[in-house]
Write a structure and sequence with these properties.
Radius of gyration: 32 Å
Order of helices and strands: HHHHHHEHEHHHHEEEHH
Distance between the termini: 13 Å
C-alpha cells in the first residue's frame, strides 16, 4: 500500500516557517572584523630592515655557539703556529678597539637597558614592579657575572704569574717599571665579546611576533566596542580596560624607538663578532681564548637556557608579560596558521580532510538508514 506524502506547506498556506525570536537573534549577522590600515612606504621599508636584522640576529643560536667554540679552537691554533699578516685591526690602538671593545659592556648596557624598559613596558602594560622584578633584573645579573669573571681572570693572572725580572713580585710594580708580566691571562675580550653577543641575541627575542600585538589591539578594540564577548578569543581578552588602554598607548608610542634600538643592537652584535675574529687571530694564546669563550658560553647557558626557564623562579624570559604574544609561528594568537589543508588518517585508518572523512566506507554505506520516500 502506497504511503501518502506529507505536505511541505503549513496549514496557513505559507511556504515558509516563521522564525521565533530566539532563532532571529541567532540569524542576525555578526559583523566583520576591522580591516588593517594601509601601510606607508616608510613603514614597509622599516619592516624590511627589521626582517633583515632578524635574519642576522636570530641565526640558529645553537649553531652559532658551535661555531664560536670551533673558531676559538681552530683559528686560535692556526694563529699560534702561523704568523698572521698585520693589519689596522691588529693594532691595539685602532679606533674600534679603543672606543668600542674596551667599553663593550658599557655599550651593551647603553642599548639594552632602554630596549628592555620600552619592550617590557608594553607587554607588562606599564606595571613597573613587574618590569623590574621580571625583566630588568636580567641585565643586573648579566652585569654581575661580567664583573665576577673578569675579576677572577685578573686575580689568576696577578697571582699565578711572574715578572720578566726577579726584582719585582707584583704585576703592578712590574708593569710600572717597564717590565713584562708573564701570567696565565684568560682572554677577557673573548669572554666579553661572546657573552655580550649572546646577551644581545637573547634579550632581543622579545621582538619575535612584535607586529602581532598591533593586530591583537585592533581586534580587541573591535570586540570591546561591539561587546562581542562570546566570540572573543583574542590573547588580550583578559586585560582590564586600564591595562588595555596603557598597552595601546605604549605600543604606539614606543614601537618606533624599539625598532630603532633593535637595528642598533644588530649592528653592535655584528661588530662584536668582527672584533672577536681579530682577537682570535692577533691576541692571546689558544688555551686562554678558548677558556675565556667557554666560560662565556657556560654562563649564557646557565642563565637563559636553565635558570630563566624555571617557571617557579625569577626573572622570566624576554617577552613574558601579562599576556602571551611571544609564541611559536605554528601557534598564532589568531589560530590562523593552525587551519591548514592536510590529509590524515583517523583512528579507523580512514583518510580524512580537516577532520572529515574523504569517502564513506562500505560498512558505513550498508549501515546507513535509507529513507523510503527518497527511494520512491
Amino acid at each position: 500500500m502506497a504511503t501518502r506524502r506529507r505536505s511541505i506547506h503549513n496549514t496557513s498556506g505559507l511556504n515558509f516557517r516563521p522564525s521565533t525570536s530566539a532563532e532571529s537573534k541567532q540569524e542576525q549577522p555578526r559583523g566583520t572584523k576591522p580591516t588593517t590600515e594601509q601601510s606607508s612606504i616608510k613603514e614597509v621599508l622599516g619592516l624590511m630592515m627589521i626582517h633583515l636584522c632578524k635574519k642576522s640576529l636570530f641565526f640558529d643560536t645553537n649553531l652559532k655557539v658551535g661555531l664560536y667554540l670551533a673558531a676559538l679552537f681552530l683559528l686560535s691554533l692556526i694563529a699560534d703556529v702561523i704568523i698572521i699578516p698585520k693589519s689596522y685591526l691588529s693594532r691595539s690602538d685602532n679606533a674600534i678597539n679603543q672606543y668600542f671593545v674596551k667599553f663593550a659592556w658599557g655599550w651593551n648596557l647603553t642599548i639594552l637597558v632602554p630596549y628592555v624598559v620600552l619592550t617590557s613596558s608594553v607587554y607588562c602594560c606599564g606595571n613597573i614592579r613587574q618590569m623590574i622584578k621580571h625583566h630588568l633584573i636580567r641585565i643586573a645579573i648579566a652585569t654581575f657575572f661580567w664583573w665576577l669573571w673578569t675579576t677572577i681572570f685578573n686575580v689568576i693572572e696577578a697571582n699565578y704569574g711572574r715578572c720578566s725580572t726577579k726584582s719585582f713580585d707584583s704585576k703592578q710594580t712590574c708593569l710600572k717599571n717597564g717590565y713584562h708580566w708573564n701570567g696565565f691571562d684568560l682572554s677577557g675580550h673573548c669572554f666579553i665579546l661572546i657573552y655580550g653577543s649572546l646577551l644581545l641575541i637573547e634579550e632581543c627575542r622579545s621582538m619575535n611576533n612584535w607586529s602581532t600585538i598591533k593586530d591583537c589591539i585592533r581586534l580587541e578594540e573591535h570586540h570591546r566596542i561591539n561587546k562581542l564577548t562570546s566570540e572573543n578569543t583574542n590573547i588580550l581578552r583578559g586585560l582590564s580596560n586600564e591595562q588595555f588602554s596603557i598597552l595601546k598607548i605604549n605600543y604606539e608610542k614606543y614601537t618606533p624607538y624599539i625598532r630603532s634600538l633593535f637595528i642598533l643592537i644588530t649592528i653592535f652584535q655584528i661588530l662584536w663578532d668582527v672584533m672577536l675574529i681579530c682577537t682570535m687571530l692577533y691576541y692571546h694564546i689558544m688555551i686562554e681564548k678558548f677558556l675565556g669563550g667557554a666560560i662565556a658560553i657556560l654562563t649564557w647557558f646557565f642563565t637563559y637556557r636553565f635558570w630563566y626557564k624555571q617557571s617557579t623562579l625569577l626573572p622570566k624570559l624576554p617577552g613574558e608579560g601579562i599576556f602571551k604574544y611571544h609564541m611559536k609561528p605554528k601557534t598564532s594568537p589568531f589560530n590562523v596558521s593552525a587551519v591548514r589543508k592536510r590529509t590524515s588518517l583517523n583512528t579507523n585508518g580512514q583518510s580524512t580532510f580537516m577532520g572529515m572523512p574523504l569517502r564513506v566506507s562500505q560498512s558505513q554505506e550498508s549501515a546507513a538508514p535509507v529513507d523510503k520516500e527518497d527511494v520512491r
